Amino acid sequence: MPTITKNRKKVETRLTSNKKCSLDQAIALAKEIKFAKFDETVDLAIRLGVDPSKADQMIRGSVVLPGGTGKKVRIVVFAKGEKEIEAKNAGADFVGGDDLVAKIQGGWLEFDVAVATPDMMASVGKVGKVLGPRGLMPNPKSGTVTFDLIRAIGEIRSGRVEFRTDKAGVVHTPIGKASFDKDALLKNAMAVLETIVRMKPSTAKGTYVKSISLSTTMGPGIKVDEAVAVGLAG
């Protein structure tokens, strides 16, 4: 049996296992019971009534968090010619073409987000098996395959996060840091939820948002009243 730490015991005494909170109550509680010495990330987990194995029910996209992510993001851009210069001027951390592809093939992965111009995707495809499983492959649906590099890089710097359903139909998304004030986290959470609600596939049957849970990096999941949250998002 795993040992339950003193901090974990304190946290669990503040939770009622079957009780669901409003989104703002869940955020306040998550901030109250955090105990890690570092600034924990606050995550939202939304279980959807979709079948991710069907292409038309795969929920994938991005959203700019109005309060930012609180994280410094390293951006790599695959571009050439004038677009390479544009990416550098827009503040990308690493810019290149086939040289960057070769560097990744050699094991380099010191970046958090990858952006590519459409004409570079044939080259980027060579490292798709490396980037894909790590969630780093540029994708048009998430806005990371584009010629508008100034906008893409600007949005990422401003707090854009990408999301997609996993095999169980759950979307996991960071909404900021535990040090953020409650209102900033609430605005970020609502931005994510509103975006996902708008993306409901026409082929999805039954309840779309089945459950919502909020947690910090080291904390337990706090159940959110999904009906109330979706009502606000709608």
Overview of the structural elements:
There is one protein chain. The chain has 234 residues and is α/β, with parallel strands linked by helices. The chain has 2 domains: 127 residues, Ribulose 1,5 Bisphosphate Carboxylase/Oxygenase; 83 residues, Rossmann fold, CATH 3.40.50.790. Helices cover 34% and strands 21% of the residues. A hairpin with a 5-residue loop joins strand 8 and strand 9. The protein is globular. The termini are far apart.
Can you lay out the helices and strands and say which pair or pack?
Elements: H1 6-13, H2 23-33, E1 41-48, E2 60-64, E3 75-78, H3 82-90, E4 94-96, H4 98-105, E5 113-116, H5 121-124, H6 128-131, H7 149-158, E6 160-164, E7 170-177, H8 182-198, E8 209-216, E9 222-224, H9 226-233
Parallel strand pairs: 3-4, 3-5
Antiparallel strand pairs: 1-7, 1-8, 2-6, 8-9
Describe the structure concisely.
The chain is α/β, with parallel strands linked by helices and 234 residues long. It has two domains: 17-69 and 160-233, Ribosomal protein L1/L10, rRNA-binding domain (Ribulose 1,5 Bisphosphate Carboxylase/Oxygenase), CATH 3.30.190.20; 75-157, Rossmann fold (3-Layer(aba) Sandwich).
